[in-house]
Amino acid sequence: MSLGWKKVLTVATAGVIALSLTACSSERETPGSNGTEGGQSAEAGGLIGIAMPTKSLERWNRDGSHLEELLKEKGYETSLQYADNKVDQQITQIENMINQGAKVLVIASIDGTALAPVLETAASSGIKVIAYDRLINDTPNVDYYATFDNYKVGTLQGQFIESTLGLADGKGPYNFEPFAGSPDDNNAKFFFSGAWDVLSKYVTDGKLVVKSGKAPKSNDDWKSIGILGWGSDDAQDEMENRLNSFYNDGTKVQVVLSPNDSLALGIAQALEGAGYKAGDGGDWPVLTGQDADKANVLNMLAGKQSMTVWKDTRALGDAVAEMVDQIVTGKDVTVNDTESYNNGNKNVPTNLLDPQVVLPDQVQSVLVDSGFYTASDLGL
Ligand code: BGC
Hints:
By secondary structure, this protein is α/β, with parallel strands linked by helices. The chain has two domains: 3-142 and 312-348, Response regulator (Rossmann fold, 3-Layer(aba) Sandwich), CATH 3.40.50; 150-310, Response regulator (Rossmann fold, 3-Layer(aba) Sandwich). The chain has helices at 58-73, 87-99, 116-124, 150-165, 186-204, 232-246, 261-273, 294-301, 313-328, 363-368, and strands at 10-11, 17-18, 25-27, 47-52, 77-82, 104-107, 128-132, 144-148, 174-178, 208-209, 255-257, 286-287, 308-310, 333-335, 350-353, 356-358. The strands form five sheets. It has a six-stranded parallel beta sheet, sandwiched between helices. Strands 10-9-11-12 form a four-stranded parallel beta sheet, with helices on one face. Strands 1-2 form a two-stranded antiparallel ribbon. It is globular and about 65 Å long. Bound molecules: beta-D-glucopyranose. Residues 57, 59, 133-134, 185, 187, 230, 260, 262, 290-291 line the site of beta-D-glucopyranose.
């Protein structure tokens, strides 16, 4: 993969560089049968289809229920569906939403390359589509994308490893095991590239030693270490295999790149099973994550995960509910990046939000004080 997609900052007229939660440009939307003709404003209301991948991961439950609540507050009806990570099931759910007369579809895809035919049907009925969190590829019929900066998620993970281990100061070598996300998830390559652009030089110069040999040769090769479906159990199996095969001589793994929390959870289970100990004097490795799932935040508090990259799903829901309303009422739709996300057919206008590192000692000040968790959720 070339780095042509790498984030291009929007340069405003005064020469000010802006990339923030606030939109810095927007698109004129001219809805068809569902919206207004001739630029007049239309009434909010009608059915909005929300297609989520699975209930098995905590974040999608939060995403779905928050978005549904916001849209209802704005006067919309909703059809919120979860597809058990099954592509065919998701396609059927989207077909049903089209048949029920949805005005807008908000889709967090399972396989971003599998929806072109059903989205052609949506487009022919004048339905607008927002890709939610994950881009939908190889189709002209995705109108907008709303997500956190996926490349930056990986960069933050890579930089955390770099600074925690003192790699830039020449420290090392450390035994390192990298993982990547699901090969069918368009985000996973961004997560990996962001991290690998920071870390690969240390692998090349021997400061990070991948005893399993599972170090992709280039960013493009990331699928070779991808965990299909993002399953914790599969990550645990993979980590157990690596520990049993390559660390059975008394050597210890000292750092693990995990692209998200579901994988980090499985990796932590494997470490636990192999007798690694957290806390002072322990040998628990540096372990990254993403999402601030509750089980992982508890692991952070217990010294079993070093950080998470938090994407406040409430902010994404807020942004998407606003975009839906703008589409339906014929207003300008908020986007702030029209360069970075090419889906193989076109650059999809994107509303990009900023992810944030959370460290164990910031759980209270960031996750609890913002109301993402209550103190009692976390036993604090
Ligand atoms: C999301 C992550 C999530 C992963 C697994 C990705 O597309 O961006 O937040 O951890 O899917 O569900």
